[in-house]
Design goal:
By secondary structure, the protein is α/β, with parallel strands linked by helices. The relative contact order is 0.14. Strand 13, helix 12 and strand 14 form a beta-alpha-beta unit. It has two domains: 187 residues, Rossmann fold (3-Layer(aba) Sandwich), CATH 3.40.50; 169 residues, 3-Layer(aba) Sandwich (Rossmann fold). Helix content is 39%, strand content 19%. Helix 4 packs antiparallel against helix 5 and helix 11 crosses helix 14. An eight-stranded mixed beta sheet has the order 3-4-2-1-5-6-7-8, with helices on both faces. It is globular, with a radius of gyration of 21 Å.
């Protein structure tokens, strides 16, 4: 009986609090495993590790902290990564970092391994978020994306919006596959009356932002939207912020200076906590302008809560009529939230859940495997997890 393919996935910028990427890697790995393949995830961490998990084998290599990122690490030791790849002997290579890990495409080609780069962000948007003029950002992104497209057999994008910058350079090796959402864990039944009572008075509107508090996510726009809703639109709104990052202190000071009712909840370690918060909110704000799929927004919809998203991101395509696309400013998000709240509550919550039900992790894993040219194989007779052999060296 076939053992399936060994699909080795290498990713940077994965931490216990790294949100969407960590969630996607976990669910896709579990999907590959369920399809009869042998996924292995290689990520940076504070120390070397090798363990079996629900997403398959996870190998951790020591990687330094990236200053100013709030805990992100990278795989900087190329020789160590090469040694692990050689020992793992992948049948397929999947990479989630088209900057510091782009060299892995050359490694795969030299070793006869089919490779795929997953584009988790818009290079044009990320470079532009650093303040680079649009024309220059576009040229730099085109150069980066051309090198990426040449280095890998396949470049996979999760939305047409994300794929546009590769179409722009004429890349012929594109694949598109959506991500998904856990429709059981993220559900309207997670509504928590006690949590609602702690975060807002009965007459208040509870807004939520679940986001990494870093510059590219533009979290300050949620505070600006709250101020606009309260002062211009006379909406008695309060804001709960779930997440952490390098901008947290600055945001707390700004909220205090503007006397805004904001609760900073920090990182919510348990998925049940996140689900309860999203299901309990009246509306969620997702201000990041460079999101290429936005798992947090999709999880919000699965919890039956509408979401206001940046019109510059891919999220308008993802949320559809269940959300509102906002201009990239505080007033723009305030207007989008106001429009969402004007819809009858039962109607807006039903629309949110219905949209989320169009996405699922099983379908996402199947689409990724199709891009890998990795069909499902018969399930093994035993479902017990194998023991991970420790890496040498």
């Amino acid at each position: 009986m076939s053992e399936g393919l060994r699909i080795v996935r290498v990713a940077n910028f994965v931490t216990p609090v790294s949100g969407g990427l960590r969630t996607a890697l976990r669910h896709l790995g579990a999907g590959y495993l369920a399809a009869g393949h042998r996924p292995v995830l290689v990520v940076p961490g504070p120390a070397r590790g090798d363990e079996w998990t629900e997403q398959g084998r996870v190998v951790t290599l020591p990687g330094p902290l990236v200053p100013g990122t709030g805990g992100y690490r990278v795989l900087r030791d190329r020789r160590a990564v090469e040694a692990v790849l050689a020992e793992l002997a992948p049948d397929r290579l999947e990479v989630s970092d088209r900057t510091t890990l782009r060299w892995t495409g050359e490694w795969a080609r030299a070793h006869g391994v089919r490779s795929m780069m997953v584009s988790h962000e818009s290079a044009t948007g990320v470079i532009g978020a650093w303040g680079v003029p649009p024309a220059v950002a576009r040229r730099l992104a085109d150069r980066l994306n051309s090198r990426t497209a040449r280095a890998y057999d396949t470049v996979l994008c999760t939305t047409a919006w994300a794929a546009e910058e590769f179409h722009r350079i004429g890349a012929a090796n594109l694949a598109q596959a959506p991500l998904g959402v856990d429709l059981d864990a993220m559900h309207p039944s997670r509504y928590d009356p006690a949590l609602r009572e702690r975060l807002a008075d009965p007459h208040q509107v509870l807004l939520v932002m679940c986001s990494r508090l870093s510059a590219e996510k533009r979290p300050e726009r949620a505070l600006d939207a709250l101020a606009e809703l309260r002062r211009r639109h006379r909406v008695p709104a309060v804001l709960a912020v779930a997440g952490t990052g390098p901008l947290r202190g600055r945001l707390e000071r700004r909220a205090a200076e503007l006397r805004l009712p904001v609760r900073f909840l920090g990182h919510l370690a348990e998925r049940a906590q996140v689900a309860a918060l999203l299901a309990t909110a009246d509306a969620v704000v997702a201000p990041g302008p460079v999101e290429t799929f936005g798992l947090a927004a999709l999880e919000t919809l699965a919890c039956g809560t509408p979401v206001a998203v940046s019109r510059s991101s891919a999220l308008p395509q993802v949320v559809g009529r269940a959300g509102r696309a906002a201009a990239d400013s505080g007033p723009g998000f305030a207007e989008a939230v106001r429009e969402l709240l004007e819809r009858p509550e039962a109607e807006r919550r039903a629309a949110a859940r219905a949209r989320a039900e169009e996405f699922g992790w099983d379908a996402a894993a199947t689409a990724f495997l199709t891009a890998h040219h990795a069909p499902s194989v018969p399930a093994p007779a035993s479902t017990s997890a194998p023991t991970a052999a420790p890496m040498t060296g």
